[in-house]
Structures are given as structure tokens and as C-alpha cells.
Amino acid sequence: xxxxxxxxxxxxxxxxxxxxxxxxxxxxxxxxxxxxxxxxxxxxxxxxxxxxxxxxxxxxxxxxxxxxxxxxxxxxxxxxxxxxxxxxxxxxxxxxxxxxxxxxxxxxxxxxxxxxxxxxxxxxxxxxxxxxxxxxxxxxxxxxxxxxxxxxxxxxxxxxxxxxxxxxxxxxxxxxxxxxxxxxxxxxxxxxxxxxxxxxxxxxxxxxxxxxxxxxxxxxxxxxxxxxxxxxxxxxxxxxxxxxxxxxxxxxxxxxxxxxxxxxxxxxxxxx
Length: 272
What we know:
There is one protein chain. The protein has seven helices and 18 strands. By secondary structure, it is of the alpha/beta class. Strands 1, 2, 5, 6, 7, 8 and 18 form a seven-stranded mixed β-sheet that branches. Strands 9-15-10-11 form a four-stranded parallel β-sheet, covered by helices on one side. A three-stranded antiparallel β-sheet has the order 12-13-14, with no helix packed on it.
């Protein structure tokens, strides 16, 4: 699948909703790459009492309202995880599973992500480490693979790999992991036990932003942005918890609004 948008927003929470509604009000086409609302931290939250306009509202109700409202405004949800953002022809290509989408600007609204990598993860990425079972699984048909991850997607990917003939070792993220090998990954250390594997599939809700967008500046506080929510990569903006504290809904929505305005200005300026 290949489809083009003015703006692709990565993430489906409060910052994403603020950005999508603003971009749509400016007449821009918007694609939102997001996991199901049920997997978000907002959905799992209890009662929220500090969001303007509501005395009290459940996280579930607010998450679903954000999604309903953005869809009604004309934004298109693209289910799945963004695997990479690649500069292409004056815009960007965004890989989502086996699909590829084009856009003119990107807004990162990924929330809090796991920036730390397992030892060996970066070294063997593409050489026995993968983030996408449906993309790379056939390369390991009939071989022994490990799946690290919790939740529905990890279970689905493990089932898929078993269905194509792989021997699958399943692990949740609570253990300490290390990936070892030579030219390619050969061993997964899980806790105190070593396993011989041909590939390690690491299934995360989202990819660490510094791996998602090569060259992106960030620190322990979050993605580095200007007051206009622009990153150091031209055409890429960020909003919400991924830019740092405070981790508040109102702040996320406001930053999403600013990021969308800046993305629209960036696109309009390139048309002149």
C-alpha cells in the first residue's frame, strides 16, 4: 500500500488529537499512525479530574472521544507501528509494517518510549534482530526465533511465526536481555539462560524516536524542540510527553496544536 498525506502524525494520544484537529482545520490531509486506543496509557488511566471542561472523565472515555473527534474531522487512522521515517524527494516516507506512506511533514506524538536498547540490539538490527515479524518472518521459516514483548501484537506475531513453521521462544519484557553473535545474531541471553536463535523479534508499542528518525536530537528529557515544536530535522515536529515534562494532557494538546500550525506553515512555505 502506498498513500500520500500532507502530514503524518505518529502516535494516537492527546498530542496527536490536538495536532490532527488543527491540521484538518487548515485544510491539510492527515494520516495518524497509531496502535489501538485500548493499548494507550490514557485509555488505561482512571478518572481524570484536571482536564479543562470536565469535572471528571475516565481515561477510556477521553481516549475514545479523541479518536472519534479526529476521525470525524477527516483524519485517517493507519493501524500499526511506524518502523522508520525516511527523507524522500522533499518529503518523507513512513514505513508501517509492510506498508509505506508518503507525506510532506511529520509530527511525532509518540508519548514516552523506551529509548534504552538491549545490549546487541542496535549492533544486530537487520542481521538477526527485527521489529516486524510479518515483514521479516519468512526469512526465518523453519528456524528458531525469539519474540520479546507483551500485549496483543507480540502474541499475534508469535502466533504468525509459529504458523509459518518457526520454533518460537516467547519472552515478556521483565527479564534482562542481551543479544550476541558474530556476523549475525546467534544467541539470546534472557536472565541467566542462553538460547540459540536465528532471529530475535522485539515487539514494542513504538520504536525509540532516535531510531525512528535518524539524526534526531534528543536527551534524557525528551526530543529537543523549539518553541514552534520543530526538531533539528527539517519538516519533523514533535509534541506531547515525548518532548519532556510536565506529562499533562493539557500540555500535550497545546503542543500538538503548535506543532500542527508549524507543520502547516512549513508546507505552505515550500509551495511558494
